Amino acid sequence: DSAEASPSVVFENIERCSPNCLQMLLENISGLTLDADFTVELIPEINVAVATFIKNIDTKKFVEKCSQHKRIREFKMTARLLESTQTIKAENLPDSISTDYLTVYFESTRNGGGPVSDVQLLPEENSAIITFCGHKGNT
């Protein structure tokens, strides 16, 4: 069921590795190119980075490769597949955003979306919680 594997890999405990170092490390391990084949999003608040592969690769094998890689172990980082979720939080939204707009946006297949079952606006945070009908389309 590799086809069902997440295209995203979570790297935890990234504080010992600079963002540039991490990107080069991932290029070395995967043989792929940043931006063309994958992206990296840093989430410093929780000491995590998420690599999302644009190019179709076996992310399960990639995670195995990472966990055995000398440098990843030296940095004491861990790698795992990003689990599927039915709910996401969209942040930094404009004040005038509507639930209808967000529903249509996140249902767009062009944006990687899927059927939305609920949108909850959080105006005080300029964010919204979007709940999908299934695990498909919440990248």
UniProtKB/TrEMBL annotation:
Protein name: PAR14 polymerase
Gene label: Parp14_1
Limits of the PARP14 second RRM domain: 5-83
One Pfam family cited in the UniProt record for this chain: RRM_PARP14_2
InterPro entries linked to this entry: Nucleotide-bd_a/b_plait_sf, RRM_PARP14_2
Domain of life the protein comes from: Eukaryota
